[in-house]
Amino acid sequence: MEVIIHRGTHQIGGCVTEIKSKKGTKIAIDIGENLPSMEKKENIELNVAGLTNNEAKAFDAVIITHYHGDHIGLYNKVLAEIPIYIGEVSKEIYKIVQESLEFANVIDEKDWERVKKFKTYKIPNKIKIGDILITPIEVDHSAFNAHMLKIECDGKVLLHTGDFRLHGQRGKSVIPALEKYVGKVDCLICEGTTLSREKEPTLTEFQLQDKAEKIFKDNKYNFVYCSCTNIDRLAAVKEASKKANRIFVCDVVQAKILDYIDSIARSDYYKFKGKYEEYSYKLIDEMKSKGFVMPIRNNNFARKMLKIFPKNKFIYSNWEGYLKPEFEEYKTLQELVPKDCIFLHTSGHADIDAIKKVCETVSPEVIIPIHSEAPEVFDNMRA
Ligand SMILES: [Zn+2]
Ligand SMILES: [Zn+2]
Q1: Which domains does the chain have, with CATH numbers?
Q2: Which residues have C-beta under 5 Å from ligand 1, the single-atom ion?
Q3: What is the edge-to-edge ordering of all strands in the sheet holding 156-160?
Q4: How far is the CA of 327 from the centre of ligand 1 (A)?
Q5: Which of 35, 93, 94, 383 is the most exposed place for a label (fewest CB within 10 A)?
């Protein structure tokens, strides 16, 4: 088994990992775009022979771990004849976001056709590409249907963690799943996003929910800036708004995503139907009298709502880094977020304890750090 990391060993996002068997089967794991600031600094065009350029196809498949842009964003650079695989639920969420009016100016018809053609996988089913066997393991992350991938070929076992964490609502199931489906591996490719970012103890998503409840009780008109696909965060906000007795109000795109989650969710925690109101002007009087919680994003709808309710509490529930001036592409977001906002966020990524636990569980011979600006932290990680 041969492993090449095309991008991602010294940066967060933009990951592409190539795996090749002795017989010549070749797959790529993720095909991500760089974070905007990174794009500017490094200006690296992704160019992999037989994958993204017009030479004869040399890859048999691309396997996407989850729908975040830094893992899927360059799917349209992949040669048309190479199949792209993604989790079944991820594909549906990605489709809703791409086809929504909010993003209509971004996706063109050719890309849309490609997205519709994505092949899907679903646990516990395995994917067989030539002589490479892939077992997806669903994990806890700020994307809903995120996966680690166990890769087997040439008598070797590799685990690619994708993005994961253990401190979200579904974190408890990750280590038992690794014990059951993975066991000891020869090689671990592990994300290390937080190693250069987080310095404080990690807040769990349930602790965040308790904090949100208190904020919503203390403030009548609450806007929560968060990703419309961060389902765990939205579930926490929904639960907190219910306990604080505020109406949970969503815009049409958010409602569409939540309705889809509702249709596939098994746990009541992820049931959104009947627990949110889709925004319409008729709701304004009730919002004024009862108070509300509304997830918003950086768009004109949000700007309008903020004007209708000028005495609001703005809760920023996303990575604070985007508010730094060097992220020039986020200038309109930086203008949207008021100086007196409340920061309420916890990372979608593994903290150092979580990485250690994964290392202990799969006791790898070799560790390759990716998705990290501090790969050297991994030096002492081997059991
Ligand atoms: Zn990522
Ligand atoms: Zn991610």
Answers
A1: 2-197+349-380 (3.60.15.10), 205-343 (3.40.50.10710)
A2: 68, 70, 163
A3: 127-129, 132-139, 146-153, 156-160, 187-191, 366-370
A4: 17
A5: 383
